[in-house]
Design brief:
Layout (H helix, E strand, L loop, with lengths): L15 H17 L9 E5 L7 E3 L15 E3 L19 H9 L5 E5 L2 H7 L10 H7 L2 E4 L10 H9 L4 E4 L3 E6 L2 H21 L14 H8 L2 H23 L6
Helix pairs in contact: 2-5, 3-6, 4-6, 4-7, 6-8
């Protein structure tokens, strides 16, 4: 098991080191669950403070390599703030910057290209409410049509308009995205969305005509039972601490 290095956290802004540790943990968890896409896709977090600075992955590192200190601090245009030895992909921040800047509650934004997420994003009917996990996620999911690789800054306005006040989005023909007021809540929303997509791909192997439809009204009931505020508390108080303990048992070097 890797050992922890001694880190001088005084060089970071107030709250920044804690954000770095949480975001590095999220990268490690994405790799652990097999949701990564080599060095592509991004998870980002806002640095506390008025400067509109953000943390994102160094573009030359696999997700299982990322540590708190290796994360790159960038501005709203995706350009590094201060010195870094790692390349950054400004185009990869296009989607993230739009939501971070438009939503005060968007402390973290996570975007994936998993096979199951891409599969559902290519289905005309989108996410179906045929599993409990899908019903937990579905009422809080928006959709955005594919416009090509996200390098066009003009797309940011349409992304913001499409997501509205939702906390998750299916990017058509592309993948999945989640938003949270913390890394913890963002990751948990992404987890439910990805699990729902995986289940949908599996259940459709039986043919859509053979699916059991949930009773009328149960979707609304589950939506009320999984309101954003409750999901946030579940993440912060229970799920995230447990996930951090899991990572610490496997390899605590994300904290370096």
């Amino acid at each position: 098991m890797a050992t922890l290095a001694s880190i001088d956290t005084s060089q970071y802004a107030p709250g920044e080191w804690e954000a770095r540790v949480d975001l590095a943990a999220a990268y490690r968890l994405v790799a652990l669950y097999g949701w990564d896409d080599l060095i592509f896709t991004h998870l980002s977090a806002r640095v506390p403070g008025p400067e509109h600075h953000f943390l994102i992955n160094p573009y030359d590192m696999m997700f299982e390599e990322i540590t708190a200190s290796s994360l790159v601090k960038i501005d709203v245009e995706g350009k590094p703030v201060g010195h870094t030895d790692h390349p950054v992909n400004p185009a990869g921040f296009t989607i993230h910057s739009a939501i971070h800047m438009a939503r005060e509650d968007a402390a973290a934004v996570m975007h994936l290209h998993t096979p199951h997420g891409q599969a559902v994003s290519a289905m005309e009917f989108g996410l179906l409410p045929h599993t409990q996990t899908a019903m937990i996620a579905q009422h809080n999911v928006a959709y955005h049509d594919y416009e090509g690789i996200a390098t066009d800054l003009d797309e940011r306005e349409r992304l913001v308009a499409d997501i509205g006040d939702k906390h998750a989005m299916i990017l058509r023909n592309h993948g999945t995205l989640a938003v949270g007021d913390s890394v913890a809540s963002c990751f948990l929303r992404l987890y439910f969305l990805e699990r729902a997509c995986e289940a949908q791909v599996l259940m459709l192997s039986a043919g859509r005509e053979n699916l059991n439809n949930p009773p009328q009204g149960v979707e609304d009931k589950v939506a009320g039972q999984s309101a954003p505020a409750g999901m946030g508390k579940l993440a912060e108080k229970l799920a995230w601490p447990a996930l951090l303990r899991k990572l610490d048992r496997i390899d605590p070097s994300f904290r370096n």
